[in-house]
Automatic annotation (TrEMBL):
<dbReference type="Pfam" id="PF13855">
    <property type="entry name" value="LRR_8"/>
</dbReference>
<dbReference type="InterPro" id="IPR001611">
    <property type="entry name" value="Leu-rich_rpt"/>
</dbReference>
<keyword id="KW-0732">Signal</keyword>
<dbReference type="InterPro" id="IPR032675">
    <property type="entry name" value="LRR_dom_sf"/>
</dbReference>
<keyword id="KW-0272">Extracellular matrix</keyword>
<dbReference type="InterPro" id="IPR000372">
    <property type="entry name" value="LRRNT"/>
</dbReference>
<comment type="similarity">
    <text>Belongs to the small leucine-rich proteoglycan (SLRP) family. SLRP class II subfamily.</text>
</comment>
<keyword id="KW-0964">Secreted</keyword>
<dbReference type="InterPro" id="IPR003591">
    <property type="entry name" value="Leu-rich_rpt_typical-subtyp"/>
</dbReference>
<keyword id="KW-1015">Disulfide bond</keyword>
<protein>
    <recommendedName>
        <fullName>Lumican</fullName>
    </recommendedName>
</protein>
<keyword id="KW-0677">Repeat</keyword>
<feature type="signal peptide">
    <location>
        <begin position="1"/>
        <end position="18"/>
    </location>
</feature>
<keyword id="KW-0654">Proteoglycan</keyword>
<dbReference type="GO" id="GO:0005615">
    <property type="term" value="C:extracellular space"/>
</dbReference>
<keyword id="KW-0325">Glycoprotein</keyword>
<feature type="domain" description="LRRNT">
    <location>
        <begin position="40"/>
        <end position="74"/>
    </location>
</feature>
Length: 344
């Protein structure tokens, strides 16, 4: 299991390296080519003898979930034609830890009551690219990862994740969620480090986000402002992505991004006319394709000296109304660590 856990951790870490350098899908190991499968295995699937707690049912054109035998901890059902979760399929799967249902045709009203609720030891529920209109549940309190990318979610009741103190990762991108539909949904999640609500219909950043958060992705929404003091409530936040929104200068309170924990800030593809005030500890700032018409160095460095300078390594300003000649004389001193400054 070390190898599988390593790849999942690597997938999470890759999401925080660079502007767009992260994988959309996790690494799912294929079933080894073995002639003999474990005798407890469902006949439609494979259970390798050297890994008998895993059942591989992926990519088999299945229209139903086979009865899962006892002892199975890792169930792979991605890339099938499954439309429903019937009563009884998980009755014996009391030890199930991972349930992978990505890329099927399951709708919310075809998940029979009590089926997923039985999985009290479930740690990872990967349910992307189906036809869900609401999150499945009730869910196990032991869950540490919930992935519902590319569904049709329009509601997310506030009590859906109640009491889930182990939950570290929530991915809800590519749905139909509004600001109102996720109000209160993330309160009390003491271990949450990654929240992805990109490609929805949000007009504001999510409220009630726990202070444990390291990564918040809200690209491709309708966000036009950042609440005053929003980042101050997230003392360890390192990566904030709000590209492809409707941000304007009047919606950016003074100093709202001036927090020492932040390493990457992506505000590209918005309607900003000036460089916002940032902290000197920021390493990557993406402002391409805005309406910026001046290079205000004081928003990057209050003043420059041998010990006071910006830690920026990347600054993108291409697609704006400024050029390299717009930089003030003291820019080189302020941005002495920058390896990439792009104007066009």
């Amino acid at each position: 299991m070390f190898a599988l856990g390593f790849f999942l951790l690597a997938g999470l870490l890759c999401q925080s390296l660079g502007q767009y350098d992260y994988y959309e899908e996790y690494y799912f190991p294929s079933a080894p080519m073995e002639a003999v499968s474990s005798p407890i295995c469902a006949q439609e699937c494979e259970c390798p003898l050297h890994f008998p707690t895993a059942m591989y049912c992926n990519e088999r054109n299945l229209k139903f979930i086979p009865i899962v035998p006892s002892g199975i901890k890792y169930l792979y059902l991605q890339n099938n034609l499954i439309e429903e979760i019937k009563t009884g399929v998980f009755d014996n799967a009391t030890d199930l830890r991972w349930l992978v249902l990505d890329n099927n045709n399951i709708t919310s009203n075809k998940i029979q009551a009590g089926t997923i609720e039985k999985l009290s030891k479930l740690e990872k529920l990967l349910f992307s690219n189906n036809k869900l209109t609401k999150p499945p549940g009730p869910l196990s309190k032991s869950l540490d990862e919930l992935k519902l990318i590319g569904n049709q979610l329009s509601s997310f009741p506030a009590n859906t994740l109640s009491g889930m103190e182990n939950l570290t990762t929530i991915q809800l991108s590519q749905n139909k969620l509004t600001t109102e539909s996720i109000t209160g949904a993330f309160k009390g999640l003491k271990s949450l480090v990654l929240l992805d609500v990109s490609e929805n219909k949000l007009k504001k950043l999510p409220s009630g986000v726990p202070p444990s958060l390291l990564m918040l992705y809200a690209d491709n929404n309708d966000i036009d402002s950042i609440p005053n003091g929003y980042l101050a409530k997230l003392p360890v936040l390192q990566y904030l992505r709000v590209s492809h929104n409707k941000l304007v200068d009047s919606g950016i309170p003074a100093g709202v991004f001036n927090v020492s924990s932040l390493l990457e800030l992506d505000l590209s593809f918005n309607k900003l006319k000036s460089i916002p005030e940032i902290n000197e500890s920021l390493e990557h700032l993406y402002l391409q394709v805005n309406e910026i018409n001046k290079f205000d160095l004081t928003n990057i460095c209050k003043f420059s000296s041998p010990v006071n300078y910006s830690r920026l390594k990347t600054l993108r300003l291409d697609g704006n109304n400024i050029t390299h000649s717009s930089m003030p004389d003291d820019t080189a001193n302020c941005l002495r660590q920058a390896s990439e400054i792009i104007f066009d």
